[in-house]
Amino acid sequence: MGAVLFQDHGVIGYYSKKFNTIEQNYSIVEKELFAILKSLEFHRNLIQAYTIQIETDGRNCIFENKVISKRTERWKLILNEFDLTIRNIKETENNIADKLSRCFYVDTEKHTDLYMIVRGCLETEEDTLVKDERNRYVVKENKEVEFVTKVHEWSVHARIYSLYNNNIKERYFIKNIKNTIEKVVKACEMCLRNKRCRKRKMKKYRITSNKLMEILSSDIFAPFDLLEYDKSSQVSGEKGFCLTITDVYSRFTVVKFL
Fold it and tell me: Are 23 and 31 in contact (CB under 8 A)?
């Protein structure tokens, strides 16, 4: 399923979810309504207390003279929490949401066997590839770095442990192999650019409210340079300070210059 939350000025948020094994057994009507329900719940903090128009290419969601299941009836009761209208649109007009809920096939290059890539780096005697006592191909002494680099790129930039154990250890012999692998991987420009930064995940706290003026959040934005803005009677000096107060339920915000 896929959904897009937007206003006239542009997109505000996206939502996409894969149906699990139980949800895959829902009827078409149930799947369409379930997608609307999950999208609304995902964006609840942004849309609650506002009038929302839902555009869907599923005619069944209009529920005009339709016999619906008990599950669908329960979902309709949840939808009553929102101020919304449902409008049916043509399937050709629902491109953005469809993109989020479709699995597209991507053309890829034809797979090339590793042996054909590294053949020029292997030791030969009278046009015959040399193997060691463990029946592994022997790599030429002056081709170690070139060989490991090719295997590293072929394996989609595998890390040191995976490169050695899954691609080289059982099939090829290189003197001082572990040091060579470590040298190549640590010097790989592509790996350095795309190295994943391991950060400790902080627990996320989501503040919700069920009625107006129940929970207020505030913050101070300061200091900012007033010389870049027009002068007003509310501020003085070169540095400015402002206090923001927001109602969590309605998102109504007041800004006060200090």
Answer: yes
Q: What is the pLDDT of residue 182?
A: 92
DSSP per position, 7-29: ETTEEEEEEE----TTGGGS-HH
Asked if residues 87 and 58 have their Cβ atoms less than 8 Å apart, the reply is no
- Nearest one of 88, 97, 3, 85 to 41, comparing CA atoms: 3
Contacts of 212 (CB under 8 A, 6+ apart): 49, 247, 249, 250
> Residues 54-87: pLDDT tens digits?
888 777 666 555 667 788 888 888 888 888 888 8
Phi-psi region of 31 (alpha: psi -120 to 50; beta: other; left: phi over 0): alpha
DSSP 43: T
Rounded to whole angstroms, how far apart are CA atoms 234 and 30?
Answer: 55
CB 257 within 8 A of CB 234: yes
Say which residue the tokens 């209009």 belong to. 62
Residues 6+ apart with CB under 8 A from 33: 60, 61, 72, 75, 76
Instruction: Map residue 6 onto helix, strand or coil.
Output: strand
For 161-200, write each residue's pLDDT tens digit. Answer: 988 888 888 888 988 888 999 999 999 988 888 877 666 6
- What's the whole-model pTM score? 0.41
Q: Which CATH number fits domain 114-193: 3.30.160, 1.10.340, 1.10.260, 1.10.287?
A: 1.10.340
The helix (run of H) or strand (run of E) holding residue 171 is none
The domain segmentation of the chain, as residue ranges, is 2-100, 114-193, 216-257
Judge if the upstream peptide bond of residue 223 is cis by omega within 30 degrees of 0.
yes
